[in-house]
Design brief:
Shape: globular
Radius of gyration: 27 Å
Strand order of the largest sheet: 1-8-9-10-11-18-15-14-13
Number of strands: 33
Structural class: alpha+beta
Strand content: 25-35%
Distance between the termini: 35 Å
Helix content: 25-40%
Number of helices: 20
């Protein structure tokens, strides 16, 4: 780990899947895992290529039931490039003597370099260097350069460059019983002697895919083309002279029928690869594109946290780049890096968009556009459930229907269990929150008054309809849901799933209702009238929203917020006993189920639930929310609540340590860094036990970036000002970053030694109001100011 380079030395089959995920290259349009080009998919290697938004549905026979699942399809593998000396066997790290092996991911340039040395059956040594990129300026292109050097011998080398359509979705072991073949109608051919092509389509979504690959060497070569079933290959026979390096370049183009401005994906791919410039020109334009991204998202963090944060930012930008702004896609929870969660869109944008809002707001807007285009489907789902408004799905894919599986496998017990996570209706509040945050940061009132307003109002409508008045309590209640915790999907012994009055769900629902009312009051009258007419809103409905937003029930027990009604009555778990018996108990739910028990029986949470409120809202805003609901939530009560759940959380999600680090920075600062470190290490150390090899955790990665951007600075974009309330940790007390705020590009903030410096670049924009606790200053373009932080 260096400032801009992520390196792996040696070859370790047990770590290969993890390395492949973390060495994935992408550009927001498609991405390819960092697998060795000379290796095929097996228990060690998994070369996967995924295009954003390319989903396909298959039906599987699971536990005697027909179950339909939608997956992000693994597309034809463009990587294959294998080689052998003379007529020997194809060289691979699993079959031949590997003298050296080194991998370096250059974050600044967006390239992956492999250097290795093989020894063949006859003792001849071959040095190989490969440089790979997925082009950031031209999102349909990828490039693989391979250099061969014979050490102390001369002779012939054979190189095979291929496109492989015999791929399946087999990258997640626990999905092994599900149908895996998503591609059909695979055809191959050649256009010109050095260019081969492949076309296919997904079996049910009927997305047509076209690939073309141009393979050239820097010496004259004998070349033949082979069509072998679902594979097409160019075979090159090349003369190799001792001590001289021979180079083979493979340039690939990928198009799908989802692309705009093309007539046919195959023709587009063949045309594009034929027009693609040479290696040096492609590498130069690729590096320039990455340089511009790094400038826009500049992050200067010292010590060991800096390189990890750069790696996280690198993977966020590879999944959600400016190219994403042209696509109809959401935020895939595991990036474009693997097949875990089937490439679905959950609530992870809640942790991703706050970062993008302040750097690439056009990408945030596009991701919210994905949700808006599926608003009608969310309204259909609510209507089918007997509700008004919009009920967004917990898992979304191609068209916005609920993609949560009916059953999930516990790998520890081998049993298929009912999956009730679709009851996490709080995803609607996350979408509303993201709309509001985006508009506050960008100043995009056009979006807020149109698409944003339509989503907010329909989500508010759903919550008002879901809330039922309880005469005994004199309050509204929301029953039968699942909170962010996910361990608790029913009460002990209950026949029906769901729990009542999840605090996170109720408080965020109240927030949505209150913000929707604020929005309606601020809308221009013609637009307000249009919305009322289109949605059938009536004043009586708004009176109900006002009422519910002030009277939603929040349960308490023992002076702390209850995660849900009845949480405090559940049994206490023997935490020390389970840690002694199992060591890692992050997935406590699986352990208990394998024992014939259920997490539903205990005061045990998978991840932050009630404490998520401290992640979304500043202390001042959170206290205001509780006051609106008729409850007092002072600092002491909140700290008691934090302490209570800190002792009862297993952190079975990479998001949990992030949220706890964020919350503890303002409550128990001395302990915050432990959780911040765990959040930073989540994927690089694969703390969840083998999950990173199936795809990175995009929300957690983006969340660590937002931790230093907003969490530790207390940065809020609220009320037309940048509001700051820093809580620098001793381990991270000096750092800087730039943001984009309401049309100001490159606003620089730097925290150091009790000072906060803000620099606004020159432009014709209005000054920025900066609020620090009880004072506000105005900083004009071209000016800087330094604010002294209060001493604690």
């Amino acid at each position: 780990m260096r400032d801009w380079t992520w390196e792996y030395g040696g070859y370790d089959p047990a770590q290969e899947r993890l390395r492949e995920s973390l060495c994935t290259l992408g550009n927001g349009y498609f991405a390819t895992r960092g697998a060795a080009p000379e290796c095929t998919a097996n228990s060690v290697h998994y070369p996967g290529t995924y295009a954003a938004g390319c989903y396909n549905r298959l039906t599987s026979d699971v536990a005697g039931r027909q179950v339909e699942n939608e997956d992000m399809a693994n597309l034809p593998n463009w990587l294959p490039l294998r080689f052998r000396t003379g007529s020997g066997n194809w060289l691979s790290p699993d079959t031949h003597k590997l003298l050296d092996h080194h991998q370096a991911l250059d974050l600044r340039a967006g390239t992956l370099e492999r250097t290795l040395r093989y020894e063949d059956e006859n003792g001849r040594r071959l040095a190989v260097r490969q440089l790979r990129l997925v082009h950031m300026a031209h999102p349909h292109l990828a490039l693989l350069r391979t250099e061969f050097t014979a050490e102390g011998w001369s002779g012939e080398i054979e190189v095979e460059s291929a496109l492989d359509g015999a791929v399946a979705n087999t990258g997640v072991e626990r999905y092994g019983q599900l149908a895996t073949r998503h591609l059909t109608h695979i055809h191959t051919g050649t256009s010109v002697p050095d260019t081969m092509w492949m076309r296919c389509r997904t079996s049910t979504s009927d997305i047509r895919v076209g690939l073309a690959a141009r393979t050239v060497a820097d010496v004259p070569a004998e070349a033949t083309t082979r069509h072998e079933g679902l594979r097409v290959a160019h075979l090159l026979s090349l003369p190799l002279t001792a001590g001289r390096t021979l180079t083979v370049d493979k340039t690939v183009a990928l198009h799908t029928s989802r692309d705009p401005a093309i007539s046919d994906p195959l023709h587009a791919a063949v045309d594009r690869v034929g027009r693609a410039p040479d290696f040096d020109a492609l590498l130069a334009s690729h590096r320039t594109a990455w340089q511009q991204l790094w400038r826009t998202a500049e992050l200067d963090v010292p010590n060991s946290a800096g390189p990890i944060l750069r790696l996280h930012l690198f993977h966020v930008l590879q999944t959600l780049s400016p190219h994403t702004a042209d696509l109809d896609v959401g935020v895939p929870a595991r990036g474009l890096h693997g097949e875990a969660y089937r490439g679905h869109v959950f609530w992870d944008e809640l942790f991703v968009l706050p970062f993008l809002n302040l750097h690439f707001p056009e990408v945030s807007r596009a991701l919210l556009g994905y949700r808006h285009r599926r608003l009608e489907r969310a309204c259909f789902a609510a209507r089918d459930a007997g509700r008004a408004g919009a009920m967004y799905p917990w898992q979304s894919g191609s068209n916005g229907r609920e993609e949560t599986q009916q059953l999930h496998l516990n790998p520890r017990s081998g049993r298929w269990l009912p999956d009730h996570s679709r009851l996490q209706h709080h995803v609607g509040s996350a979408i509303a929150y993201n709309v509001w945050q985006y508009c506050e940061a960008s100043g995009d009132t056009e979006f807020l008054h149109t698409k944003g307003a339509e989503m907010l109002l329909q989500i508010a409508r759903f919550w008002a309809d879901a809330a039922v008045y309880d005469e005994t309590l004199g309050r509204y209640r929301i029953r039968g849901v699942v909170g962010p915790d996910e361990y608790h999907d029913a009460y002990p012994g209950a026949k029906e799933p769901g729990i009542d009055d999840n605090t996170y769900t109720n408080v965020t629902a109240a927030w949505v209702l209150a913000r929707s009312l604020d929005l309606l009051r601020s809308l221009p009258e013609p637009r307000r009238r249009d919305l009322f007419e289109r949605t059938g809103l009536a004043d009586a409905e708004l009176d109900l929203w006002e009422d519910v937003s002030r009277l939603l029930h929040v349960p308490f027990h023992g002076g702390v917020i209850s995660q849900f009604e009845g949480y405090g009555e559940l049994a206490e778990l023997d935490w020390d006993g389970y840690r002694d018996r199992y060591g890692d108990i992050r997935r406590l739910d699986r352990i208990l189920e394998a024992e014939g028990d259920r997490a539903n029986n205990y005061q045990a949470s998978k991840q932050a639930d009630a404490l998520m409120l401290g992640y979304l809202f500043s202390p001042t805003e959170l206290q205001g929310l509780f006051r609106r609901l008729g409850y007092e939530m002072d600092d002491t009560a909140w700290q008691r609540t934090v302490d209570y759940y800190l002792r009862r959380t297993s952190h079975g999600s990479t998001l949990s340590s992030l949220v706890h680090g964020w919350v503890l920075a303002r409550v128990r600062r001395a302990e915050a860094w432990v959780f911040c470190q765990e959040a930073l290490a989540g994927d690089i150390a694969d703390l969840q036990g083998g999950t990173t090899g199936e795809g990175i955790h995009l929300g957690a990665m983006a969340g660590t970036l937002d931790l230093v951007q907003r969490g530790l600075t207390g940065l809020e974009t609220r009320g037309g000002a940048l509001r700051l309330n820093p809580v620098p940790l001793p381990e991270l007390s000096e750092y800087g970053f730039v943001i984009r705020y309401q049309g100001h590009w490159g606003v620089r903030l730097r925290l150091r030694a009790g000072q906060l410096q803000i620099t606004v670049p020159e432009s014709d924009r209005s000054p920025i109001d900066i609020a620090l606790l009880d004072r506000t200053v105005s900083v004009a373009p071209g000016e800087s100011c330094s604010l002294t932080l209060p001493v604690e």
